[in-house]
Amino acid sequence: MDLLKFITAGSVDDGKSTLIGRLLYDTNSVLDDQLEAIQRANRKNNDGTLDLAILTDGLKAEREQGITIDVAYKYFHTAKRKFIIADAPGHIQYTRNMVTGASNSDLAIILIDARKGVVEQTRRHSFIVSLLGIPNVLVCVNKMDMVDYDQAVFDKIRADYERLTQNLRIKQVDYIPVSALKGDNIASKSATIPWYTGKPLLDFLETVTIDHSTENKQARFPVQWVIRPQTPELPDYRGYAGRVVGGTLSVGDRVVALPSGFSSTVNRIELASKDLEVAEEGASVVVHLTDDIDISRGDMLVKEGQQPAVSQRFEAEICWMDTKPLDMNQFYLLQQHGKTTKVKIQDVVYRVDIETLQQSTATELGLNDIGKVQFKSADPLAFDSYKANKANGGAILIDLRNNLTVAALMITESID
């Protein structure tokens, strides 16, 4: 069955957790003990109905404050599709959590409070969605019940959001007016919004087309582990374990190990002790080569003639996620797949003004800032642009002083 991974994002109190709770409740995806826990918690809405937001508030602090702090993942399915939902926080100080939840999503649901319209967090989250290459956005204009289901309110928000996304890299944007509290246009069409002729949320999620095609992706196999049992039964066994993050690898393919440049041929592929002829994208396998070339954890196997960029200097779009600002005098640790290397930030190319989405000059980036930065690494890094291959163009930045993840990177190009 097809799987759709999506994230909900928006500003504080836009109703993200309530929408997800309503979706789970209306699709009979809530277990009896969960309903009993909600009743025991005695959290109710103003109209006396159960507060379904508690279904996604997993932390005690979230339940006490009535806000989402951490990303909550929920799973459900219908007869047509399986779903993984990431409920991202709306508070600006938790923007880094939104980046984490969005990094593996196929679709982003941007919630907008019908009373407030497009606000700063709408712009911030939409820009992050664009940076992370999520192809589809669904704008749910929520709390329509609080504006008397006025079509003019919905139309104005739609026009404002269309202007916002004119210069963003988002392929498709759809719009649905909803009331998560009342259930309007969630699991079924709402009789109180007759002017809306499109699909309700659940029907949209079941039928939206997401392109998972890998026909334009070139083979990428980052080595996570070199397997050498050196036992009496397997004295000469040498396999390279990892996950295919682009294209396919087949037995007989000529491959190049990066960054060394040594070449060999794939002579065997294992998956759960069974031999495969072809390993497709997403498969975690063990690859064997005909030659005992020097390969270590963090190296990458690619097909001959399909090499990515290999460089120590590159540019990346960056989301800064630490309370300490970026320090150009500090060494950081970059991690991409199983490879780690020290890097130095050489220049901040620009910072994005979230209010206007314009680029401005900057010498540092602070918490939740987004910009473009030039790096120099201690070791050569094999990468594609994030636009060409998200898995091989993404990385994280770690502060060597405390081992905290301080930034998410989307590599754009080599600057050699």
Q: What does this entry look like structurally?
A:
It is built from eight helices and 22 strands. It is α+β, with helices and mostly antiparallel strands. The chain has three domains: 3-207, 3-Layer(aba) Sandwich (Rossmann fold); 220-303, Elongation Factor Tu (Ef-tu), domain 3; 309-414, Beta Barrel (Elongation Factor Tu (Ef-tu), domain 3), CATH 2.40.30. The strands form four sheets. A six-stranded mixed β-sheet has the order 2-3-1-4-5-6, sandwiched between helices. Strands 7-8-14-11-10-15 form a six-stranded antiparallel barrel. It has a six-stranded antiparallel β-barrel with strand order 16-20-18-17-21-22.
Cross-sheet strand order for the largest sheet: 2-3-1-4-5-6
Q: What is the ordering of alpha helices and beta strands?
A: EHHHEEHEHEHEHEEEEEEEEEEEEEEHEE
Summarize the biggest pleated sheet.
6 strands, mixed
Poorly predicted runs of 5 or more residues: 58-69
Any idea what the radius of gyration is?
24 Å
Query: Structural class of the helices, strands and pairings?
Result: alpha+beta
Question: What is the name of the CATH architecture of the largest domain?
Answer: 3-Layer(aba) Sandwich
Name the average pLDDT.
Answer: 87
* Overall tally of structural domains: 3
Number of separate helices: 8
Distance between the amino and carboxyl termini: 45 Å
